[in-house]
Design goal:
Blueprint: H1 2-21, E1 45-46, H2 51-59, H3 64-72, E2 77-87, E3 90-99, E4 104-110, E5 116-122, H4 124-127, H5 133-138, H6 143-154, E6 157-166, E7 169-178, E8 181-188, E9 193-196
Helix pairs in contact: 3-6
Length: 197
């Protein structure tokens, strides 16, 4: 009779230890926290916390590519980063454009009207740590072209994009949303898809 009790007690003890060793569930976001897309979201992963912003980006009348075209038309240069934001209840794209004069300007483009809301200068030194401005200007593929390739490959709508430095050349990382899921698509300077996850 004593042995079954010992066995049951041992099972209960091991179960308690196993439960104690599991990691706690992730903390809920604090009230009033602003949802922003995160880099590194895996393919097929739910974008909890970012869903409303991604949905707003997908429902926007102006595409990310059109926002790039608008921002680039404000001066000579190429877009190097685009993020979708909702600021003061206005859905907008924040497009950083590197000018041929070496200046980095961020244009806020209304995602429903396509109009530039405001433009502001940014320090270029903080943006280009390993990548040279000439690398961006000389790349065979622009950010706009990389976005089009990524959207076609992933079958969704781009909600963010940026230029990166990879193996001494330009590479683009595009976040493409489809419903509540996102994928990161990397495109090289020749317009070829490097990875998708």
């Amino acid at each position: 009779m004593l042995k079954p009790c010992v066995a049951i007690g041992a099972v209960a003890l091991f179960t308690s230890v196993a439960l104690a060793q599991t990691s706690p569930p992730p903390a809920a976001p604090s009230p009033g926290a602003t949802a922003r897309p995160e880099s590194g979201t895996a393919r097929g992963t739910n974008t909890r916390g970012h869903t409303s912003e991604y949905r707003a980006a997908q429902a926007a009348k102006v595409t990310l590519t059109q926002a790039i075209e608008t921002a680039e038309s404000k001066g000579q240069g190429r877009a190097v980063e685009v993020d979708f934001e909702i600021e003061n209840n206005v859905p907008q794209y924040e497009v950083k454009v590197l000018g041929t004069d070496g200046k980095l300007i961020e244009h806020h483009v209304d995602a429903n009207t396509g109009q530039v809301i405001k433009s502001e200068n940014h320090p270029i030194e903080g943006f280009f740590k390993r990548l040279k401005p000439a690398d961006v200007q000389n790349a065979r593929t622009s950010l706009k072209q990389a976005v089009a390739a990524a959207e076609q490959k992933a079958g969704g709508k781009a909600v963010g994009a940026e230029v990166e430095h990879e193996a001494n050349s330009v590479q683009y990382e595009i976040t493409v949303a489809n419903g509540d899921r996102t994928q990161k698509v990397k495109v090289d300077a020749n317009g070829q898809i490097v990875s998708q996850n």
